[in-house]
Amino acid sequence: MPDRELYIGLMSGTSADSIDAALADLSDGQHRLLATLSCDIADLKNDIHELATPGFNEISRMGQLDRELGLRFANAANTLLQREYIDSSQVIAIGSHGQTIRHTPPGDGNNRHPFTLQIGDPNTIAHLTGITTVADFRRRDIALGGQGAPLTPLFHRATFEKPGTLRAIINIGGIANITLLFGDGVSSPLGYDTGPGNGLMDSWILQSLGEAYDDNGQWASEGQVIPTLLEQFLKTPYLFKKAPKSTGRELFNPEWLSQQLVSFGDSIEPADLQATLLEFTAQTISTGIRKSHRPITEAYLCGGGAYNGALVSRISALLNPIQVSTTEALGILPGWVEAMAFAWLAQQTLAGKPGNEPTVTGASAASVLGAIHPA
Question: For residue range 323-332, what is the model confidence (pLDDT) as tens digits?
Fold first, then answer.
């Protein structure tokens, strides 16, 4: 039995609900999830979301939040290790995704220089944990002309690909993205952001009911889809862009939703809008997979959306006869795939191996990603 190669992945997604910390053993090509911890950051959610769009005193607010998130990320890693009785010296590295506060990739037409920005100071993480920390994974791909996202497809291939089977991995966070795995040992994976995941639904239920999320899609299930509104949603120009493409809260946010509702006045029942948002997410995901024109036979869900039963049911119906399950069937609980992916990306970086996939991001070349912050 080889020695364990322990890494920690730290992740905070578009929804900005929590920091997810995953302890993984990545020895001998295996990807074993050993322990997990989720730390609530709801008290920072508004500050994070306010930085997704231009506003007053941005640099000062960003600098403060960068440090605060660095402290929170470090605390998550330390708490996880303490709980598992593991000394920091046993961990090779931390891979920290950080918190995205702005994402304007190539092709969005709004900036002379495309860029992406994640905060959560890795210097603070390395100092307070005593563990080498790899962070800032996305900007090298942007420098190579890529989208900077999604970065999980290579991990999906290394972990979930099965010879002779065409699979789709569907990650539903605040934004949804898909990875297509061809199972032939030759083809590179394909993938892109399909559009909204949980983000719009979370924003609407928070505004309407004061709840952070729609538990199991119960509220959406009480409403009826509004066909004319759904049709309008589905005309969003991003949906017609060709891959590679990526998006974020810069597009699919409460302000976007408010603009979509202008012509409807006060005639919409809140639960009906939630049902329509759920259907919008399900249709954009299923369309993304169908548009590949590949005979996909299996689809596996991960991310928070995998726990929304109503959403899973709609995706399953739209993808029929493709078999739909969650990544738990493949050995990793769906809520921890992304955090584990950034542990794996840290391993790739330290080994001098590429972390991006040009067929996914559109980068001009595969490259080692991230910046290394020694312990």
Answer: 999 999 999 9
Distance between start and end Cα atoms, the chain: 28
Query: Which of 243, 281, 284, 199 is CA-nearest to residue 107?
Result: 243
Residues 173, 305 contacting (CB under 8 angstroms): yes
Q: Token digits for 113?
A: 């220089």
- CA 310, distance to chain mean position in Å, is 20
Q: What angle do CA 140, 237, 107 make, to 5 degrees?
A: 25
For 317-357, write each residue's pLDDT tens digit. 999 999 999 999 999 999 999 999 999 999 999 999 999 99
Is the confidence at residue 16, as pLDDT, over 90? no
Q: Which residue, 206, 232, 225, is CA-closest to 276?
A: 225
Length of the chain: 375
Minimal CA–CA distance to 44: which of 64, 24, 25? 64
**Rounded Cα–Cα distance for residues 70 and 64 (Å):** 10
Q: Do 306 and 312 contact (CB within 8 A), yes or no?
A: yes
Right CATH number for 153-330 from 3.40.1190.20, 3.30.420.40, 3.40.50.300, 3.30.460.10? 3.30.420.40
CB 29 within 8 A of CB 1: no
- In whole angstroms, give the CA distance from residue 168 to residue 337: 14
Asked if residues 118 and 31 have their Cβ atoms less than 8 Å apart, the reply is: no
pLDDT per position as a tens digit, 183-213: 998 899 999 999 999 999 999 999 999 999 9
Average pLDDT, whole number, for the chain?
A: 95
| CATH pick for 6-148+336-373 out of 3.40.50.1980, 3.30.420.40, 2.170.150.70, 1.10.10.1150 | 3.30.420.40
Residue range 291-312, pLDDT digits in tens: 988 999 999 999 999 999 999 9
Could you state, in order of their start, the residue ranges of all structural domains in the chain?
Answer: 6-148+336-373, 153-330
